[in-house]
Design a protein that fits this description.
Elements: H1 4-26, H2 28-58, H3 71-106, E1 110-114, E2 120-123, H4 125-131, H5 135-138, H6 143-146, H7 150-158, E3 165-170, E4 176-185, E5 189-196, H8 198-234, H9 239-271, E6 279-281, H10 283-298, E7 303-308, E8 314-316, H11 318-335, E9 341-348, E10 354-360, H12 367-370, H13 382-387, H14 394-404, E11 408-414, E12 418-425
Parallel strand pairs: 7-9
Antiparallel strand pairs: 1-2, 1-5, 3-4, 4-5, 6-8, 9-10, 10-12, 11-12
Helix pairs in contact: 1-2, 8-9, 9-14, 10-11, 11-14
Bound molecules: adenosine-5'-triphosphate (ATP) and magnesium ion.
Length: about 425
């Protein structure tokens, strides 16, 4: 291949020889014109190639440009190789970048990248959800202009990020508790990590409530019991009165016993994550047992009707099913005033699901209480419920048993008219 310098010398020589020959034959002017013409050929050629180069660069398709011959071939070939390598490298970097973004998006935690001025460089969709941000709109906005909570602004301004910050009532409907912490990286940048701790907070609150409730429920009978004991110990009482006191002590002890039993039942149900066994539980036997217990508890003060519309049995844990059903029946008896009517019915609906329903003509329950009835220790009317010996654990037990049998507890109630509690059992849990 001829080098660039040799080409240059060759063209000069050719121009010189041609202009000399023309000059000798046709005079000075023609000789100079011939020399200029010869010298301008490579210039025109270069111009044409540069114009082509410009066109291909404009269309971003330099690597597809056919190579010219001569000096430009080498230059264009190297240029094309450079562009190809650069594009390949860029593709790899883009792919890597996409992988990082995908990984950050997959995180269950919110991630926000802040620059040295606390402006949002990037955030994942969880962070968008937590803070109501839209990255496309809020990119490069200062985060303290978008999250206006004083505790957050204080945390950010203090620049003391060793401890996380807990903010409550965040999220779209102010229902989230978020734990966040900023971690420095790069040059004065920060990575803000946000964890949704709503469930943990709820569990914590529930645990605290639970301990408070149990202590409260135990304290009352223990105090009463101790009062009686002191009286019996310190006073000379007639046998009749003593017996009366013992009876009252017995009832308080009984109350504590049933509380502890209910708590144990609940704990066992909660600890058992396996679905209930599928023993055949005959509906007629169940209804007969319920009827016996109901009549004994009511002592003739209520009118009962027991309907068995289907002979299909239930596939489940007999003890648990009886406990759930009798909880509903005993509630109806306890909360329905004397003379009220209680209907207990077992049937199978059109979809083949079993339905155990207990309806009463009791006081009913206002709608705001319905969704909370299955919470542990929840009672509509604490004083009345305590009079009847209730601790508010019955329906929590029913709900657990229902879910272990994939059944649903449904409650309908009209204040002043009565309530219907129904357990709907899936067809897979029914036998012949
Ligand atoms: N049939 C009903 N009619 C009216 N209110 C009811 C009826 N069943 C339940 N309730 C209300 O729901 C609350 C919760 O019932 P649940 O069975 O969980 O607790 P409890 O009866 O108070 O106590 P426990 O069942 O643990 O002895 C009751 O305190 C009562 O206020
Ligand atoms: Mg109850």
């Amino acid at each position: 291949m001829i080098s660039a310098l040799s080409r240059f010398i060759l063209i000069i020589c050719v121009a010189f020889i041609v202009s000399f020959i023309v000059l000798a034959n046709w005079g000075n002017e023609w000789g100079i014109a011939a020399g200029i013409f010869i010298l301008s050929i490579p210039l025109i050629y270069s111009y044409i190639n540069l114009a082509r180069l410009g066109r291909y660069i404009q269309n971003d398709s330099l690597e597809n440009m056919p190579l010219p011959s001569g000096l430009w071939e080498e230059i264009f070939f190297r240029l094309q190789r450079l562009i190809k390598n650069l594009k390949q490298r860029m593709g790899q970097i883009e792919q890597q970048h996409d992988h990082f973004i995908e990984a950050f998006q997959a995180s269950p935690n919110g991630i926000v990248m802040l620059d040295e001025n606390d402006q949002i460089e990037w955030c994942n969709s969880i962070a968008e959800h937590f803070f109501g941000l839209i990255f496309k709109r809020d990119a490069m906005q200062r985060i303290n202009f978008l999250i206006r909570r004083p505790e957050f602004i204080h945390y950010l301004n203090r620049r003391h990020f060793d401890e996380p910050l807990l903010i409550e009532r965040m999220g779209p409907d102010s229902s989230l508790s978020l734990m966040m912490q900023a971690f420095p990286f790069g040059q004065n940048r920060h990575l803000l990590l946000i964890q949704n701790v709503t469930d943990l907070q709820k569990a914590d609150a529930m645990r605290r409530d639970f301990v408070a409730n149990v202590s409260h429920e135990m304290r009352t009978p223990i105090t009463v019991l101790m009062g009686f004991l002191e009286t019996v110990q310190s006073l000379e009482l007639a046998k009749e009165q003593r017996d009366q006191y013992f009876e009252m002590m017995m009832s308080q002890a009984q109350r504590m016993k049933s509380l502890v039993e209910d708590l144990l039942t609940l704990a066992n149900l909660e600890a058992n994550t396996q679905p209930a066994v599928t023993n055949v539980v005959k509906s007629e036997t169940l209804m007969a047992l319920l009827r016996n217990d109901a009549e004994a508890l009511s002592k003739g003060k209520h009118q009962f009707s027991f309907e068995i519309d289907s002979t299909q049995s239930i596939l489940g844990d007999e003890r648990e099913i009886l406990s759930a059903f009798s909880n509903l029946v005993s509630n109806a008896i306890r909360y329905t005033p004397d003379g009220g009517k209680i209907n207990v019915k077992w049937s199978v609906n059109h979809q083949g699901q079993g339905e155990f329903a207990v309806s009463d003509t009791g006081p009913g329950i206002a709608s705001e209480h319905l969704s909370r009835l299955t919470e542990r220790f929840y009672r509509v009317d604490r004083s009345r419920s305590r009079d009847t010996g209730g601790t508010g654990l019955g329906l929590a037990i029913v709900k657990h048993i229902a879910s272990r049998h994939q059944a649903q507890l449904m409650i309908e109630s009209t204040p002043g008219k009565g309530s219907t509690f129904m357990l709907r059992i899936p067809r897979e849990r029914l036998g012949n």
